[in-house]
Specification:
With 246 residues, this protein is mainly beta. It is built from two helices and 17 strands. A hairpin with a 5-residue loop joins β14 and β15.
């Protein structure tokens, strides 16, 4: 797809089509950078049409449609990206609460002028467990797409940010941890880690340390002072589900 066509989406649609944050509980605990919210990468929020098909909000006939399907007797689902010229790209997904995606976003994550995609699917559960998501990413590779998936807590445009130095795409991944703190009490924390895309997989950006933010009864964006580096390592290691990809 030509760069001029991709850039056109940012010229002709109105402000309502610009992506709004996928507001969830965890959005109130996103980390700040130097006291301010991170700059977000420009994205387009797809809209859901009939039959669970997600389309571009302004140019549905010029941009691909996205759908998650489930074939009978299959224990997995398939996410399908269908371009107007007939080219199709597919990847598997877990068969959970579905086979329905809850949100789709598009942006140029790898700076090649071709739209990339983040597709969001809730894992399910009640209460706090309702904040767990699967993120399905599709990164353009010339005329192909490279897919990867992540498990995370909360996922929306607020997780797609720009490195202030390079202005390149970064993903803020969120995990949940509980443990003993320096005050002798047990507390809950949202742990945010900054990842970069290396063309094959997400990897930790060594320029940014994990940010531990205490879960309170109010919005909180400040790193906690209740943990030492040793306590953070112990609390993190006590939970074996610490990988970003599966």
């Amino acid at each position: 797809m030509k760069l001029s066509l991709f850039l056109a989406i940012f010229i002709f649609f109105d402000a309502k089509i610009l992506a709004e944050a996928n507001e969830t509980l965890v959005a109130d605990y996103m980390p700040f950078l130097n006291g301010q919210p991170w700059s977000q990468i420009p994205v387009v929020t797809y809209v859901e049409s009939a039959s669970n098909i997600w389309i571009h909000p302004s140019f549905p006939k010029k941009f691909p449609t996205i759908q998650e399907i489930h074939e009978e007797d299959s224990d997995f689902t398939t996410v399908v990206i269908q371009f107007p010229d007939g080219s199709t790209f597919k990847t598997y997904n877990k068969f959970i609460l579905g086979p329905y995606l809850s949100a789709v976003y598009s942006g140029d994550f790898n700076n090649d002028g071709i739209p990339d995609f983040m597709m969001v699917k809730p894992v399910g559960g009640n209460g706090l467990a309702g904040e767990e998501y699967i993120g399905i990413f599709a990164f353009s590779e010339n005329k192909d797409y490279h897919f990867t998936r992540i498990n995370t807590w909360e996922l929306g445009p607020q997780n797609l940010v720009l490195d202030p130095k390079t202005k390149n795409f970064r993903l803020i991944h969120t995990a949940f941890r509980q443990g003993l703190s320096v005050d002798g009490q047990y507390h809950s924390f949202w742990v945010h880690r900054v990842f970069q895309w290396n063309g094959v997989a997400f990897q930790m950006d060594k320029d940014f340390s994990p940010i531990w933010i205490q879960y309170l009864n109010r919005p909180n964006h400040e790193p906690t002072k209740l943990l030492t580096a040793e306590l953070e390592q112990k609390i993190w290691s006590d939970d074996l589900e610490s990988t970003i990809e599966w």
